[in-house]
Write a structure and sequence with these properties.
The chain is of the alpha+beta class. The chain has two domains: 165 residues, PurM-like, N-terminal domain (60s Ribosomal Protein L30, Chain: A), CATH 3.30.1330.10; 173 residues, Phosphoribosyl-aminoimidazole Synthetase, Chain A, domain 2 (Alpha-Beta Complex), CATH 3.90.650. It is 35% helix and 23% strand. Strands 8-10-7-11-9-12 form a six-stranded mixed sheet. It is globular.
């Protein structure tokens, strides 16, 4: 039967080799709460230690992918960091609601399952989980030659965290006078890549070239992995030092920060209060984009916004400095002025 199955494009032996090759890196992400991980019909994760100290526990979950950034990884055969993007898109979302990360599951659908390539992809996911405080406890690896071309694959993931319901971050905690602290992004992160690829194709840009103003090759800039904020931000959440947070993804600062602003207030964001990384100016120039295009599509150098009470600002700043986390004071929360978020 296996020979017949292999003739249809599915190689069971390669699948077994791939699973074996990733075993140790997966295990390295797991904490003491993991009772059973990869290999069973379902992973087992104990909440006994987590809920004992939480008065009103609630699970926070998030699922996401990495969009068409994958196409650049596939085109250039660079697969070691795309898994970091996958984890970050999920982990940063649940962090922004105040969750302590618990565990992560991934899905990999692929055209031709090559063990070494799979190992590279999963190594990125494992690295992301370690950076995010998540145990990688399971997933699915599906070889589907009828859906994907030989070199193609797709990724999605699912993160779960836990929080005290009474201490969740959100707009209900935000007050007039609160300060906006922007934490820098590592680059484009994982949003806007359909536009990025159009700019590259329309201008016939060489992905392997070094263009003026950019540090490294163009593809190095485009595939720079999404930054994870767990190690810098979660201690602030634990200490009840921030009121709300916004993970800046598709829709830019305006759309994402608006989720954390109550109806009666506005976040005034000072446009020139942080340095915009060179890759964004490069894309703006070659794509002939106006500022509204940039605002709607890209994070423009801010990956996470923290909303902080003035009386806690000094403690937050000191903590970020201790963590060697860069930050910028990018604005303030004021009485509502037409919209939830406004550039000034």
């Amino acid at each position: 039967m296996s020979n017949q199955y292999q003739s249809s494009g599915v190689n069971i032996s390669n699948g077994q080799k791939a699973v074996k090759s990733i075993g140790q890196m997966v295990q390295n992400t797991q904490d003491a709460n993991v009772l059973a991980g990869v290999g069973g019909f379902g992973a087992e994760y104990s909440l006994k230690n987590e809920v004992s100290e939480i008065k009103n526990p609630v699970l926070i979950s998030g699922t996401d992918g990495v969009g068409t950034k994958l196409m650049l990884a596939i085109e250039t055969n660079k697969h070691t960091t795309i898994g970091i993007d996958l984890v970050a898109m999920c982990a940063n979302d649940i962090l922004a609601q105040g969750a302590k990360p618990l565990f992560f599951l991934d899905y990999l659908g692929i055209g031709d399952l090559k063990p070494e390539k799979v190992k590279q992809i999963i190594s990125g996911i494992a690295s992301g989980c370690e950076q995010a405080g998540l145990s990688l406890i399971g997933g699915e690896m599906a070889e589907m030659p009828g859906i994907y071309k030989s070199d193609d694959y797709d990724l999605s993931g699912f993160a779960v965290g836990i929080a005290n319901h009474d201490k969740l971050l959100g707009p209900n905690r935000v007050q007039e006078g609160d300060v906006l602290l922007g934490l820098p992004s590592s680059g484009i992160h994982s949003n806007g890549y359909s536009l990025v690829r159009k700019i590259v194709n329309d201008n016939e840009l060489d992905l392997n070239a070094k263009y003026s103003g950019l540090d490294g090759t163009l593809i190095d800039n485009l595939l720079k992995p999404t930054k994870l904020y767990y190690k810098s931000v979660y201690p602030l959440i634990e200490s009840n030092l921030i009121n709300a947070a916004a993970h800046i993804t598709g829709g830019g600062i305006v759309d994402n920060l608006a989720r954390s602003i109550p109806n009666k207030l506005t976040a005034d964001v000072k446009r020139n209060s942080w340095p915009v990384p060179a890759i964004f100016n490069f894309l703006k120039l070659h794509g002939k984009l106006d500022q509204s295009d940039m605002d709607e599509v890209f994070n423009q150098g801010i990956g996470m916004v923290l909303i902080v009470s003035p009386d806690k600002l000094k403690r937050v700043i000191n903590d970020l400095k201790l963590k060697n986390e860069a930050f910028y004071e990018i604005g303030k929360v004021v009485n509502r002025d037409e919209q939830a978020v406004k550039f000034i």
